[in-house]
Amino acid sequence: MTISTVNVNGLRAAARKGFLEWLAGTDADVVCLQETRVEHAQLPPALAAPEGWHVTLVPAGDRGRAGVALYSRTALDGVRIGFASEEFDAAGRYLEGDIGDVTVASLYLPSGEVGTDRQAEKERFMAAFLPYLVRRRAEVEAEGRELVVCGDWNIAHREADLKNSRNNRKNSGFLPEERAWLSRVFDEAGYVDVVRGLFPGVEGPYSWWSYRGRAFDNDTGWRIDYHVATPGLARRAGEARVERAASYDRRWSDHAPVTVVYKD
C-alpha cells in the first residue's frame, strides 16, 4: 500500500494550480489531505468524484477553515470522524478510514502563535489527542490491525527537522513543550516516525516552505508532515519520498506530498 499525505492549503486553489494533474499521476493507493477549506457542495465534479477515486471529505464547522479528506482507490471499509473530543470533533481536523488491515488517518493539528488564543487551542488539542492515540493503538492492535496517522502535525520534532532551528526556538512549531509532546507520542505511546526511520541522521527531508522570501529556492524548510505509525506497520515501510516541486512556479501548495510505500 502506498500512502501520500499533503496539506493542500485550500483544495480548490490547489486544483487550479496542479493538484488534479498530480492526483492523476500518483501511484498512491490512499491520499490524505489537510486544510481543504471546502464544503461538500462547493466541490466541482473533478474534485468530488475524480475517476478512479473514492472521496471522503470532512469540512470544518467554521466555514473556510481546516478540513481533512481521504482519497482512496477502493471504498473505505469504515470511517470515523474526530476522536471523541467535544471541542474538536466538528473542527475538520481528524478523519480515519479502514482499508484492509490498516487504518489510515488524516490529521490537521492546529497551528499556533505564541501568546495568542491560537496557541492555547493547539495546546488543548494536543492534551486531548495524546490519550486518544494511546487508546487507539491498543484497540487496533488488539484487532490485529495497524494504524498510521498522516498529516500536518505542525511541529518540527528535532533540529534536523527545520533549517533554522536556532532562530525558531521561541516560535510555535518548535517550542520545547511542543517537541516534548511529540516525543511522548513516540516514546510513551509507542508510535514510529516512519520517514525519519528511513532517513536517519540527515537534515529534513523538508515538506513545508514559507511563501515568503526565497525559502523554497534556498530549501529553508520545515519537516512537519509526518507518517506516524504503529510499530508493525512502520516495519513494513520500504521507501519514502517528499515530492518537492521542480521549481517555485510549479508548486500547488506551500507543502509537498510525503509518500511512503508499505510492503505487504
List the helices and strands and how they pair.
Layout: E1 2-7, H1 11-17, H2 19-25, E2 30-34, H3 45-48, E3 54-58, E4 68-72, E5 78-81, E6 94-99, E7 102-108, H4 117-142, E8 146-152, H5 176-187, E9 192-193, H6 194-198, E10 225-229, H7 231-234, E11 237-242, E12 258-262
Helix pairs in contact: 4-5
Would you write up a description of this structure?
- 25% of the residues lie in helices and 24% in strands.
- Helix 4 (117-142) runs parallel beside helix 5.
- The protein is built from 7 helices and 12 strands.
- By secondary structure, it is an alpha+beta fold.
- The chain has a single domain (2-262), classed as Deoxyribonuclease I, Chain A, CATH 3.60.10.10.
- Strand 7, helix 4 (117-142) and strand 8 form a beta-alpha-beta unit.
- The chain is globular.
State the major sheet: 6 strands, mixed
CATH homologous superfamily descriptor: Endonuclease/exonuclease/phosphatase
The counted number of beta strands is 12
Q: Kindly provide the name of the CATH class.
A: Alpha Beta
What pattern of helices and strands is seen along the backbone? EHHEHEEEEEHEHEHEHEE
CATH architecture: 4-Layer Sandwich
Task: Quickly give the structural class.
Answer: alpha+beta
- What does the average pLDDT come to? 97
**Strand portion:** 15-25%
First CA to last CA: what distance?
A: 7 Å
Number of separate structural domains? 1
* Low-confidence runs: none
Discrete helix count: 7
Query: Can you give the helix content as a percent range?
Result: 10-25%
CATH topology: Deoxyribonuclease I, Chain A
Largest beta sheet: what is the strand line-up? 3-4-2-1-12-11
Rounded radius of gyration (Å): 17 Å
Principal-axis shape equals globular
